[in-house]
Amino acid sequence: MSDATVSAAPRALYVYGVVSEDTDLELSGAGVGSGDVRVLREGDLAAVVGDVALDEFDEEPLRKNLENPDWLAETARAHEGVLERALGTTTVIPFRIASLYGDEDNLREFLRANRDSLLESLTRLEGKVELGVKAFFDRTAAVSRDAAGAESGSDYLRRRQEEQLAGRDADAFVIDCARTSHAHLAEAALDARSNRPQAPELSGRAERMLLNGAYLVERGDTQLENALRELEQGFGTQGVTYELTGPWPPYNFVPQELVGP
Amino acid sequence: MSSRDLQGTAGSLPGAQHPAQLADVLERVLDKGIVIAGDIQINLLDIELLTVKLRLLIASADKAKEMGIDWWQNDPFLSGSANGGSLEGRIKRLEREAGLADGDSSER
């Protein structure tokens, strides 16, 4: 796997995220590009990093690779996988995919320059994880409720009218359900974000996604799950299903941009 | 179909029963998390462009409007932080710059 040509090729430093300084993480071949993963320490901070080949991650090849769905999926899963391994034992500030430095010195400079805000985030996120909740609404269940049986022309028109009314009701219901669900879950969490619902092509489910929320909770805390069960009992009979994901590294609860040196 | 969804989906950590769905992973690693200005220049701008392209591909605004799921855009309660608004603006700008969007009138 690591023959002479590979190890001799120019390398860059791939940064997965920043972690508490006492983190130990050594992963052999489990990083992006099947690379090794290690911890780089700088003062009272540490970063989870790995070496990647520039012929895969330099500007030109990276641009092409990002357009390749298979490469993107594999790299995204590897990035997430490494952060989840870290999350199992320590506090994690997740970075976006393909955050790259030319060498260790440049990354150390970044860590020194952003020490205060990184430490602030680490303190705020200590012992916390992100949970995702998606809610789906099966519209046909609401519309087809009383549209059964043989129908004449006027029956047809009446049914169409009812369907249109039901459609409008459904929209109002979806908005109300999304707001109520998000508010109820947010109450059970330390922080909350509501993201753009995924289209069916992305979610892989035919039903309409009405909520795509992220919630910051203490690791192991069950309040959010309890709140979810309550919502299920309330909205479950009205065609709404919920899906819980995580624990995730707190992607939704870190500053979006830090400017390096 | 309802309560079973709730059980068994938790946990993308090692030992979890179901691996996380790719859509949920991509949404996070492409669009959330810290963006740093590393010294390989692709990581900031092009990732955002890629995100924009993916969105246009699989969750385009037109498509969303068609499906009636654009309400979050104008709902201050659900659009989360003020941050979300500026990101939206940045994506719109990137879309224009990249020539990926040809105005609001396009209907597919």
Topology:
The complex is a heterodimer of chains A (261) and B (108).
Chain A: H1 4-8, E1 11-20, E2 38-42, E3 45-53, H2 54-57, H3 59-66, H4 69-87, E4 92-101, H5 104-113, H6 115-125, E5 128-137, H7 139-143, H8 153-187, E6 191-195, H9 200-203, E7 208-218, H10 223-235, E8 240-248, E9 257-258
Antiparallel strand pairs in A: 1-3, 1-4, 2-3, 5-7, 5-8, 6-7
Chain B: H1 3-6, H2 22-31, E1 35-36, H3 42-59, H4 61-66, H5 82-97
Word description of this protein:
The complex is a heterodimer of chains A (261) and B (108). With 261 residues, chain A is an alpha+beta fold. Chain A is 44% helix and 27% strand. In chain A, the strands form two sheets. In chain A, strands 2-3-1-4 form a four-stranded antiparallel β-sheet, with helices on both faces. Chain A has a four-stranded antiparallel β-sheet with strand order 6-7-5-8, covered by helices on one side. The longest helix of chain A is centred in the middle third of the chain and has 35 residues, at 153-187. Chain A starts with a helix and ends with a strand. Chain B is mostly helical. Chain B has five helices and one strand, in the order ααβααα. The radius of gyration of chain B is 17 Å and the shape is globular. Chain B starts with a helix and ends in an 11-residue tail after the last helix. Chains A and B meet through β1, α3, α4, β4 and α8 of A and α1, α2, β1, α3 and α5 of B.
Spatial order of strands in the largest sheet of chain A: 2-3-1-4
Report the order of strands and helices of chain A.
HEEEHHHEHHEHHEHEHEE
Structural class, from secondary structure content of chain B?
mainly alpha
Shape of chain A: elongated
The portion of residues assigned to helices of chain A is 40-55%
Q: How far is the N terminus from the C terminus of chain B?
A: 33 Å
Largest sheet of chain A: 4 strands, antiparallel
Radius of gyration of chain A: 24 Å
Number of strands of chain B: 1
The average pLDDT of chain B is: 52
What is the H-and-E element order of chain B? HHEHHH
Give the count of helical stretches of chain B: 5
